[in-house]
Each structure stands twice: as C-alpha cells, then as structure tokens.
Amino acid sequence: MDSGSPxxxxxxxxxxxxxxxxxxLIDCAKCVATGSIKNADIGLEYISQISSxxxxxxxxxxxxxxxALGYRIIKHLPGVYKSLNSSxxxxxxxxxxxxxxxxxxxxxxxxxxxxxxxxxxxxxxxxQVVHIIDLHCCEPAQWIDLLLTLKKRQGGPPHLKIxxxxxxxxxxDQMNFHLTTEAGNLDFPFQFYPIVSKLEEVDxxxxxxxxxxALAITCVLQLHSLLATDDEMVGKISPAAAASMKLxxxxxxxxxxxxEWLERDMINAYILSPDSALSPLSFGASPKMGMFLNAMxxxxxxxxxxxxxxxxxxxxxxxxRIYRALYFYSALFDCLDSTVMRNSVERxxxxxxxxxxxxxxIIACEGVDRKERHEKLEKWxxxxxMAGFVKVPLSYNRRIExxxxxxxxxxxxxxxxxxxxxxxxxxDRPLFSVSAWSFRx
Length: 441
Prior knowledge:
The chain has helices at 8-11, 21-34, 37-50, 57-74, 78-85, 93-105, 108-123, 140-151, 169-186, 239-253, 258-272, 287-298, 318-339, 345-364, 377-386, 399-409; strands at 129-134, 159-166, 190-196, 214-220, 303-309, 389-391, 413-418, 421-426, 429-439. With 441 residues, it is α/β, with parallel strands linked by helices. This is Scarecrow-like protein 3.
C-alpha cells in the first residue's frame, strides 16, 4: 500500500498483520460502533478481498460477520435497507431445509432430542395419556424415535398426543403426515394437533390440553427470542423531538457529502437509540418472557425440556456482542470445517442461510428486531427458578448412547454435566445446553 492509498488508515491500526481477517474485522466493528463509516467502508472492502464464503473456516465466518456489519450501517438508512430487502420474505421453504441440514451435519440437535426423549420416558413411566407440546415442531425424527421407544414400554404404550407449534402450516402438515403414518404402522394410539402460531403469540389457554393429560413441553433454540425488548418503550426521545431532529438533519444534508451525512447520522443513532436490554434477568425488561413463562406454568407441566445456545449475546454493547459472537461462531465454523467436506453444498447452505442469518441479527439489529439474544445456562436456571420451576436432574440412561452419537461425528465433540443439566461442547468449549424442569407444585 502506498502512502496515497485509501487503505492508509489500516497501517495506523494497532494490529500488525493486515492479512489477519479477524483483527481487521474487529477494527472495522470499532469503526462502525463509533460512527467512522468511511474507515469502516474501506476496511470492509479490504475484507472482501481476503475472505470468501468458499474459503477456510475463518474466512467464511469473517465473510458473514462483515456482511452483518454492512447491514448494520445501511439499517440507519431505512429507504436503502427496505429497498434491498423488499423482495425477501420472513419465511421460506429453505428455512426448514437448512434446519434439517443443521440437524444432520451437527450432532447438537440429535443429542438434545435423545436426552429429551429419555427424560420424557422416565417422567411419564406410569402415565396412560402423555401430551407433548413442541414449541418449534419441524423435525419428525425425534418423535418417531419416541414412538419406537414407547412402543416397547412394559405394559404397553400410552396414548400419545403431540401439539405441534410452528409459524408455517405446510411444516406442520408434513409433521402430521410423517408421525401419523409411523404411528399407524406401529399400531400406536396417537393424535397430532397442529397450531400455526409464532412463539410469542401462543395462546396457552386454548391449547388442546385435557384434564388427565400428563404434559411435557419442549423448546429447542427458541426461548431466547422472547428476550427481545422494545426500544420505543425505553430510553427514546419523544416522537416530536425525533421528528424535529430528522428534519434538521435533512435540511443540513445538502451542505455535507453523503459519507459525512451518513457518518453523522450513525453517531446520532448510537446516541439517541441505546439498546434497552437492561438486566437480562428483569421481567420488566423482557415482558414477553415473563408472560410466556407464567402462561406455561399455569398448564402445570410435569416436564419442560429446554435446549439453548450456550453463549452470552444478550448485551447492549455492540463490541461485547461481536467479541462473544466471534467466540461462539468460530467454534461452530471450526466443527463444520473439521467434520464436513469443504465442497458440501449442504454445509454452504447451512452457513450462508442459517448461521449468517443469526450473525446478521446479532450484529445488525437492535431492540425488538434483535431476536438472537443467547444467554448462558446459569441465567436460564435463575430465570426459570424465579418463574416457579424446579430443575429435574437428567438421568444417566442413554448417556452412553449420546456419547457414542457425538463420537460418530468427531472425538472433539464432548458433553459434560453442570448443575444437573448437560452442556454439549466442541473440544472444551460449551456450545449448547439441555435442561429439564417441572412445575413447582
């Protein structure tokens, strides 16, 4: 780079190797966080030259993180952002497909379903009518496995009901077809109730739960989305003041270059729109979570099993989120790089459509739009205990089978027990937690 190069600022940064994409990404993130948009733009352009979605694990991950930073910049230009996203729909057929890729290419969800099913079998050992509410019902393999296990139960299988909740009717239709077909083949007493609903809009009072049903509720990688908070309610200036300031910025825009206006607008955005997460354990800061747990508790479930990402990404500070997201997702990209072929189309779709979408939401979004608010097990334990639930220790049955499942993928996959819950790890880095709960009677 010569002294007149637009990349000259890169020479002045504290990191030494300009070929290190993670170091450059962090410096670009700092530029975005402080409103230095021109420098961020230069850095992101340089990242695009040294990273690729077809490269190694680091290059692929940095590609999606840099894309997320770009989206964060343009989100402060509502017209530009909406025009770039006008043809995109919130739900597509590919959403379910990439979920299946994640289920198959990584052992995390299979491990979760194996441990969950064992907990259900043990909790419902003497029950005649077992009712499961699946709060994100999209993977038939778990419940087919449960049908096969319960079919062998001494004294005969229970009558099994599954209420499946999902945003898309066609997903539930497929679940209904697969499960009722398998139950018919096994001559298993079974009913499936489809409920088309978003998680936060589930009407617990009108679910088809009958007196005498032994109830189990499962929630896989969904509960954290209820931690999203509304910036309109906390820390915002009045609408009149906001309109006045927007008008002033519009008047002065003609006196500055576009880059200067954007940089100034970004700084204003950070000053006027702080994140409203507050204390992650405060029901007042996440009212949806408080109401949801309260409604769930009223059903008096015999068992609740929750699977969540083991990471602390419910932070208001952008740089804290980026550092922690890099720590979490670097392990995910590493395990995929170690266990799945580089040219796998399924891996490419999983990373570009699922992981990239999560990263974009973590970095580019704030307030109620930021759904990927992962928290660690210790916080979930405190939150659920505060809501009136008590832990159910996960038994040792099927742990050998679960361990063998992980080893089939890679010896670097491990699990460990913590606070009567299980953590699934890549090497020694915990990535997902499985915990079981019951209603405090």
